[in-house]
Amino acid sequence: MIELRHAGPEEFAASLDTVIDIYTVAMRPPTDQLTGRQSIMRNHATYPRFTCLVAETTDGVAVGFGYGFHGSPGQWWHDVVRRSLEEREGPATAAAWFENAFEIAEIHVRPEYQGKGVGRRLVHGLCAGRGERTAVMSTHDQPTAARHLYQRLGFVDLIGMYVFPGGYEHYAIVGATLPLQPMP
């Protein structure tokens, strides 16, 4: 059985080694990116209304995590993506999605626990009770299990085949109106 528990910003920052380990086995990024990713995650914990959930086995072994925060001007992802959406769809569309958004920064589950509802529970748990109007995130723009999960939860494509500045991978920027649709 997997249980979800909240981790505050201080606990999250203190457990970054575990978080990075889960991120690494789930995403298999180039090792030279891990130090930068850890720094980004540490910084995210300082953002307004940061919330984190950790998925653990009954004996306390972390098998997944997810976190997000209130998106605000001055945050790199928020500014870059909002500007791109504004250029493509206009200021009204960008405002509708980003004026009062919960930005889901990371959702990762160890491969041996994927496909068992852990990711769905993390997304729902993070979004439950939020005061924001929308939830937004980026995900690889490929037909992955995660991408299908987000679609089933009500996330729609805002921008497809998006490459972040300085990057090379294609992402989909997706958004959903809160509260999320319940899973059948």
TrEMBL record:
Coiled-coil boundaries: none
Pfam families (alphabetical): Acetyltransf_7
N-acetyltransferase domain ranges (all copies): 2-184
Entry GO MF terms: acyltransferase activity
The protein's name in its UniProt record: GNAT family N-acetyltransferase
InterPro entries from the UniProt entry: Acyl_CoA_acyltransferase, GNAT_dom
Enzyme Commission number: 2.3.-.-
Organism lineage string: Bacteria, Bacillati, Actinomycetota, Actinomycetes, Streptosporangiales
Key words, A-Z: Acyltransferase, Transferase
